[in-house]
Amino acid sequence: MSSKITNDTAPSSDPLVNQRQDIRVMTQVIPTPMSLLSAALEKGVELDTLRALMDMQNEWEDRQAKKAFISAMAAFKKNLPVLVKDKHVKITTKANDTVEYDHVTLGNASAVIGKALGEVGISFNWQSTQDSTGRIFVTCNLTHEGGFTQSTTLDGAADTSGLKNNIQAVG
C-alpha cells in the first residue's frame, strides 16, 4: 500500500521549500497469527491445515531463536571476561590444620559474566530445588532475547564438611 503526500505550504524565500514535493510512503503490514487465521478461514482452508501451518511457523521461529542464541554465544566467547579472585579464605580445621586459598566469589563472577552476556543479548538465572532425600539440584538458565533458553543442571548432596551451619551446607 502506498499513499501520496504533497507539501502545499505558503511561499518562502527559500526556492527549495517552494518546490512541490511528492513523497511516496510505503507501509508494510505484518500479519499476525489471528489475521492469517481469519484470512485462511475466509478462503475455506481446513482447520487441520491451519494448525499444521502454525506449527511450521512456530518451529521456524524456534530455529531462528536457537540460531540467534548460538551466534550470541559465539560473540560472547570471542570476548570472554577476565575473572579476578576477590576473596582470600583461611580456615582452621577441627584437626587444627590451616587451609588457605583464593577464589572468585559467586557475586563477582555473576556480575562480570552477567554484564558480558548482557552485551550479546543473553541473561541468566538460577533455580534450585531439593528432593525428599535432601539432594540439591541447581539449574542455570541462559536465555537469549530472541526467546531461546539453554539450561544446565548440577546436583549433589549437602556439604556438611567443615564448620558450616545447615543453611551453608545446602548452598
Relevant terms:
two-stranded antiparallel sheet, three-stranded antiparallel sheet, alpha+beta, 5 helices, disordered N terminus, 171 residues
Notes on the protein architecture:
The chain is elongated and about 85 Å long. It has helices at 15-18, 33-42, 47-78, 106-118, 166-170; strands spanning 2-6, 22-26, 87-92, 98-103, 122-130, 136-144, 149-156. Helices cover 37% and strands 28% of the residues. The strands form 3 sheets. Strands 5-6-7 form a 3-stranded antiparallel sheet. It has 5 helices and 7 strands. The protein is an alpha+beta fold. The longest helix is centred in the middle third of the chain and has 32 residues, at 47-78.
Summarize the structure.
The protein has 171 residues and is α+β, with helices and mostly antiparallel strands. It is 37% helix and 28% strand. The strands form three sheets. The chain has a three-stranded antiparallel sheet. Strands 1-2 form a two-stranded antiparallel sheet.
